[in-house]
C-alpha cells in the first residue's frame, strides 16, 4: 500500500474511532440522547474494519496508527472542542509521528 493511501486510511480510521468514543461521551457527560449510542457503535465497527484493511502485521499497524491517532485527536480537540493545542501538544504530536514513520517504514533487516 503506498504511503499516501496508508496515511489517509489512518486518518479515516482515527476519525471513526474518535466519533465512536465522542458520541457516548456526549450522552454520558453532557446529557445528550442515548440514541447517539447507535451511530457510535457503527463508527467503532467501521474503525475495526478499517484497521483490517492494512496489509502488514496487525501489531505494527496498531502501533503506527497510534501516532496518527494522536495527531487527529489534537486536531479534534481544536476543531470540535475549541481548545487550541499547546506547544507541548504539538511537540508530542511531532514525536508520535516520527515514531509512526520509524515503525511503518523503518529497516526490517533485523526482523
UniProtKB/TrEMBL annotation:
The keyword Chaperone does not apply. It holds the Pfam family UPF0060. Keywords: Cell membrane, Membrane, Transmembrane, Transmembrane helix. It is found in: Cell membrane. The chain crosses the membrane at residues 7-28, 34-54, 61-80, 86-106. It is a multi-pass membrane protein. Belongs to the UPF0060 family. This is UPF0060 membrane protein. It comes from Sphaerotilus microaerophilus.
